[in-house]
Specification:
mainly alpha, 4 helices, 2 strands
């Protein structure tokens, strides 16, 4: 609860409009909007627990890291799941390079046999 009280205090401070310098006011307004957007997203339901299937909020995933219902660690929901049969970005580049080499050899061979 102390974290939320601290965020609330930061929001009150960031919402001040008595700054004298326009750039400082603009920066503080941007900070206040960012805090409000983050607080809004933290309250949203984002997933369900893999063990008990209860809904999880952003605060469960990002702040506590555990399901509030069954206590399961939620770090597995934050890491990407490898997909069988799908290529990663670097693998696409390697495949493109290999295909380019094959096409280049084929073109060279067809040019030599025609000439």
């Amino acid at each position: 609860m102390r974290k939320f009280d601290r965020i609330r205090g930061n929001l009150r401070f960031a919402g001040r409009t008595d700054f004298t310098h326009p750039e400082a006011r603009e920066r503080e307004e941007l900070t206040a909007r960012s805090y409000r957007a983050a607080a809004e997203r933290i309250r949203q339901e984002l997933a369900s627990c893999p063990r008990c299937r209860e809904p999880l909020r952003g605060s469960d995933l990002l702040v506590s890291g555990h399901c509030p219902n069954c206590g399961k660690a939620l770090s597995s929901l934050l890491t990407p799941v490898p997909r069988a049969g799908r290529l990663e970005g670097g693998e696409y580049l390697a495949l493109l390079g290999a295909l380019s080499g094959v096409v280049g050899l084929a073109l060279a061979e067809s040019g030599e046999s025609a000439g």
